[in-house]
Amino acid sequence: MTARRTAARDRWVTLGVFMALAAAWQALSLVFTAEAQPGEPMVPGWQVLFSRTLLSMSDYFQGGFGIRPISEGGVRSYPAAVLSLLGNSADTLLRLAVGWLAGALAGTLLGLAVSWSAWSRRLVELPAQFLRTLPLLAMVPLFQLWFGSYFIGKVAFVAYGVGVLFFAGVVNAVGNVPQIHIDNARTLGAGQWRLYGSVVLPAILPELRATMLLSLGAAWAAVLGAEYLGAQSGLGYIIVFAQQFAFLDRMFLVALLIVVYTSLSFWAFDRLSAWATRWAPAAG
Amino acid sequence: MIALDHVSRRFRRADGQIVQALDDVSVTIAPGEFVCLVGPSGCGKSTLLQLVAGLLEPSGGSVNVAGQVVRGPAPERGMVFQRDSVFPWLRVIDNVQYGPRCRGMKRAARLALAQQYLERVGLAHVARAWPRELSGGMLKRVAVAMVFANGAEVLLLDEPFGALDYVTRHQLHDVLLDLWEESRARTGRRTVLFVTHDVDECLVLADRILVFRAGRLVDDFPVAAPRPRTADSLLLADMVAHRHRLLAHLGLERAAPRAIAGAAAQ
């Protein structure tokens, strides 16, 4: 069978699995009709999720585009609900992106510093290894007390979670850079800065692909974790708010949305890093 | 001029044992000379090359190139390695212009230079390819072009063609000699140190052969046969004698190697 036909078949199988899962959920909602509280089914069917649940997202709308939020006497509406989901998603994604970038940058620089010189290694290695062993989620309350509900707190938390992964990944990958490439660059006249920019960084990239995907997962966990505790907006905030009132359907809708975002972000990362390492021979 | 003055180099192996890789080696090499370093594996010839490159420091003695003590690598001393050294993340032409780029040459000039050397080694048609798309012989051509494009006055080649097939190896000998003679005619000098353990390879290439054994320089003799040399050059009486001398050093001659080594030392 040709590769193209195999790919086409794979797509149909994927679609089929999705449909089957959706149908199974719907069937479960019809069979298992227990409610968390009156009017709140434990397993909300699709007809609930895409009508009442979606509409209820208006509750988290903070105003704009000429539509009044609920807190200022507005009424629930689909435009308000969609704008609310977009706005809260944007808040979460911005925290995620800024935090991931800051963490990746800091982790990479600190990781490179370990091999840069004897002095930079002495300065960086021990404190970084110490920070690395602190459990991320146990740090949530600490970050909340330090930074309150400010943007910087959530960004710092994500950056911390991503940074420690990058640090470990970079230190490990730098140790695996073939000496022959370093020797070659030095005999061709490369100085220390050029050596790091043109040899060490590209050489560690293939090995860092795994770290990047791993850190993206950690970043999602960290941003939602930070929003559980100290946010006034964002997808994590909606879930916590809904949990307090046992709005299972809202939690489920937002969780679905998060699955869509994480899948998209993993896919985009995979494509981007595959392009950046297109020079590398295929593994295996 | 390359001058090694009582150079020695020791290594500490992982098991803690000290290995004397080079033991009190003194030798002077004139500018423009093509010198082959021969000897069995582990005799110290690659160590000597790394000392001249500045990738290693001597444990004793000094290494001078052009009147300067060698302290670390420099673009004046280019090196072609035994294993593949071409950067896999750069396209072929970007590999060749890497050295000129380090020296701060302008983009247009270094691209023209890289293109020129790729043509000289017969790889102009793969300038935009990734190294992984090239064969082992082509990668060696790229490595040679990288070093020549960088204009090094001293070329250090560490068993560069050892892993190649017979035909490719001979093609690369021609490429190397062609570039060497052209640049020697232009600049009046371009010294080559070529490490090998292939007897015929060093007879075809060398002006002078240094033989090492167990870290010591045990023989040093010129090869006067006229260039260009062909397979027939190896049949000259002088060359046959050289060949026997080298085989004896490598322990491959039936005659007692000790007798010949003793005669050379006198």
What's the topology here?
The complex is a heterodimer of chains A (284) and B (266).
Chain A lengths: L2 H29 L3 E3 L2 E2 L4 H11 L21 H39 L1 H16 L6 H8 L3 H25 L3 H9 L4 H39 L4 H10 L3 H29 L8
Antiparallel strand pairs in A: 1-2
Helix pairs in contact in A: 2-10, 3-4, 3-6, 3-8, 4-6, 5-6, 5-8, 6-8, 8-9, 8-10, 9-10
Chain B lengths: L1 E11 L5 E12 L4 E5 L6 H9 L6 E6 L2 E2 L7 E4 L11 H5 L1 H5 L4 H14 L15 H14 L4 E5 L7 H22 L3 E5 L3 H7 L2 E6 L2 E7 L14 H13 L7 H9 L1
Parallel strand pairs in B: 3-8, 3-9, 6-7, 7-8
Antiparallel strand pairs in B: 1-2, 1-4, 4-5, 9-10
Helix pairs in contact in B: 4-5, 5-6, 8-9
Descriptive overview:
Chain A is an all-alpha fold. Chain A has a domain at 90-276: MetI-like fold, CATH 1.10.3720. Chain A is built from ten helices and two strands. In chain A, strands 1-2 form a two-stranded antiparallel sheet. In chain A, strand 1 (35-37) and strand 2 form a beta hairpin. Chain A is globular and about 75 Å long. In chain A, 30% of the residues are buried. Chain B is globular and about 50 Å long. Chain B is of the alpha/beta class. Chain B has helices at 45-53, 92-96, 98-102, 107-120, 136-149, 166-187, 199-205, 237-249, 257-265; strands at 2-12, 18-29, 34-38, 60-65, 68-69, 77-80, 154-158, 191-195, 208-213, 216-222. Helix content of chain B is 37%, strand content 24%. In chain B, strand 4 (60-65) and strand 5 form a beta hairpin. Chain B has a six-stranded mixed sheet with strand order 6-7-8-3-9-10, sandwiched between helices. Chain B has a four-stranded antiparallel sheet with strand order 2-1-4-5, with helices on one face. Chain B has two domains: 2-76 and 153-265, 3-Layer(aba) Sandwich (Rossmann fold), CATH 3.40.50.300; 84-151, no CATH class. In chain B, helix 4 (107-120) packs across helix 5. Chains A and B meet through helix 7 and helix 8 of A and strand 6 and helix 3 of B.
